[in-house]
């Protein structure tokens, strides 16, 4: 269905937020696209709004600092609690504006995360648990998504109601008919978001996939994660686009089924954003057994007893966009913003500067 994006007032690049050392503004004629999971999610509805309004929450303050330093023109947030009135997002945007990063155009549709079904979707013999929601969540909107932009947003096409069984070639495991009849593909959301940039239009393809773990022998989450990426292979627009969000899957390392994600990367342009911080991270534990370039990692997870550092957050422009810069905001220890980035989230902000190719 089509949802109207919220437009408040025209805006421009912020009033000189303090940049990360080495992170310069986009080249002339370029715009900065970014995605990040600040993990601004809480255990109950309204708690994130409470923490944002308190003015004392250190994680919120660190997240504001990171975004203001990166200063993207368009930002896809994953892992941000949704509420009916959009109050948490509005309060967070107000803090960003005070820090010099003003985003007058915003969209945050209701996600599938935490959306009750009344069925035993995870087939554990009980109903009403977080695994029985359309997407895992303790309440409707936990760990939702949002788009913030300095440029006008058009009508958002929300694919989040698509049933998993209706994806051609899906990997959905066998399920009771009543479950298959309601189970949506998106664990959070799939949005097509038109953005009107000074040099022309661009369509954001935003999503936040389920992690391909925490399931049983049927590999339900691994299959769903694969199909959440595979969905975009059938919905790539003919014009300029950028795939943005949390794939929750590394194309080279960790658990999961990377075939669809690799196909997406091949269909787009991969700037391979890097950071000194990820490259400098200890290559011990599970990290020592990984194949991928550690400088490309975007999440700092436990090296012992965890998945290690992985590349799970992506900005993939279409081939007809010229890439003029890219990176992951993961400063090495002792550098500016290193403490703020670590305090905000286990994920790191990924940015790509693009210009309309001539």
UniProtKB/TrEMBL annotation:
One of its GO terms (molecular function) is endonuclease activity. Residues 274-289 have a biased composition (Low complexity). Residues 55-347 form the Endonuclease/exonuclease/phosphatase domain. InterPro entries: Endo/exonu/phosph_ase_sf, Endo/exonuclease/phosphatase. Residues 271-304 are annotated as: Disordered. Keywords: Endonuclease, Hydrolase, Nuclease. Gene3D superfamilies: Endonuclease/exonuclease/phosphatase. This is Endonuclease. The lineage of its organism: Bacteria, Pseudomonadati, Pseudomonadota, Alphaproteobacteria, Rhodobacterales.
